[in-house]
Design a protein that fits this description.
By secondary structure, the protein is of the alpha/beta class. The chain folds into 2 domains: about 160 residues, Rossmann fold; about 120 residues, N-(1-d-carboxylethyl)-l-norvaline Dehydrogenase, domain 2. The chain is built from 14 helices and 9 strands. It has a 6-stranded parallel beta sheet with strand order 3-2-1-4-5-6, sandwiched between helices. A 3-stranded mixed beta sheet has the order 7-8-9. Strand 5, helix 5 and strand 6 form a beta-alpha-beta unit. Helix 8 crosses helix 14. The protein is globular. Bound molecules: NADP nicotinamide-adenine-dinucleotide phosphate. NADP nicotinamide-adenine-dinucleotide phosphate binds next to helix 4.
């Protein structure tokens, strides 16, 4: 079967994450065709040798089609829209792999529709931003049937440093959503101690350097260090998308009657950063909200700090 021997790849969604991920497949030498709603975002991929198609359904002739779009509603649109959707067309791929962070319900709905058409559906959401992808340090969590995993594993492994298979069906959606609750809470904790440091006379650079060298440090704390120290909030991941993930997580919490007081509070802090006009900036602007709540305005320390990704 073409899929197993030499898969041809399709890609839907070339945003902050989709573009670097599709680029890795092109760089690995896979024959790749791409589609993006805003056509101009495909230009860098075209320059690298990807084929750019005009309609989602033009990707139906590829053996494996990946998607990386914003929300559950967007995934349903690109897959199931009666006029434009990939899975409602005449020509269908053998496998669809979705990397977006979406709800279990949407994932199940798209999976069931795909399977009714004889298309395998695999969930492969990711952890890490575009720069993390470029540095080869992305982590992927995935679920679906094991036979499909065996086929798509080499493609997914080309995304980065780890691929964690967590079982059947939609399990990966839950793991990814819960991971992002930790992401938001950890970022809020960093924001609070950095503001406390500021008011008590300790530089953010010093606090972050020690954390990054300690057991509390992580690839994440290191790569967020330039944002937190030098206030570089060029968006890698927006608070709007993070709020979506908190809402997905808190929906599960309510469903299963699990109290999550810190998660609830952090969700509203993410929302307040949107209300303060940071919707299109990086979610690390949570630092600025923590500072405003303490009655101070932060300035860039213009320090020579690294994100550790080079
Ligand atoms: P983004 O930069 O906003 O890109 C979103 C992409 O989806 C764009 O290509 C956009 O097309 C496309 N899109 C959105 N709605 C669409 C629709 N209705 N029809 C067709 N295309 C549509 O978002 P991102 O940061 O790449 O995030 C994508 C997904 O990955 C999200 O689920 C997010 O939670 C998840 N994620 C993000 C990160 C991160 O660090 N950024 C990390 C892990 C996971 P246009 O270009 O036309 O707008």
């Amino acid at each position: 079967m073409a899929t197993q021997e030499n898969p041809t790849v399709g890609w839907i969604g070339l945003g902050n994450m989709g573009a670097p991920l599709a680029t890795r497949l092109v760089d690995e030498g896979y024959s790749t065709a791409v589609w993006n709603r805003t056509a101009s975002k495909a230009d860098p991929l075209a320059a690298k040798g990807a084929t750019v198609v005009e309609a989602i359904r033009d990707l139906g002739s590829q053996s494996v089609v990946f998607s990386m779009v914003s929300t559950s509603a967007d995934l349903e649109q690109v897959m199931l829209d009666p006029e434009l959707g990939l899975l409602t067309g005449d020509s269908l791929p053998e496998i669809v792999v979705d990397c977006s962070t979406v709800s279990v319900e949407t994932s199940k709905k798209v999976r069931e529709f795909a399977e009714s058409k004889g298309v395998r559906f695999f969930a492969a959401p990711v952890s890490g931003n575009g720069k993390v992808v470029a540095a080869g340090k992305l982590s992927v969590v995935c679920s679906g049937d094991e036979e499909t995993f065996a086929i798509v594993q080499p493609l997914i492994e080309s995304f980065g440093r780890s691929v964690t298979y967590v079982g059947d069906g939609e399990a990966a959606r839950l793991v990814k959503i819960y991971h992002n609750l930790l992401l938001g809470i950890y970022t809020q904790a960093l924001a609070e101690i950095l503001v406390l440091g500021e008011k008590s006379g300790v530089k953010r650079e010093a606090v972050m350097e020690f954390i990054n060298n300690s057991v509390m440090g992580s690839i994440f704390s290191q790569y967020k260090t330039p944002a937190l120290v030098n206030l570089d909030f060029h968006p890698t991941f927006t608070p709007v998308l993070l709020r979506k993930d908190f809402d997905l997580g808190l929906t599960e919490a309510r469903k299963h009657e699990v109290p999550m007081p810190i998660t609830n509070l952090t969700r509203d802090i993410v929302e307040s950063s949107i209300g303060h006009g940071f919707a299109k900036d990086d979610f690390a602007t949570m630092l600025l909200i923590a500072a405003a709540n303490a009655g101070i305005e932060l300035k860039s320390e213009q320090a020579d700090v690294t994100d550790g990704l080079d």
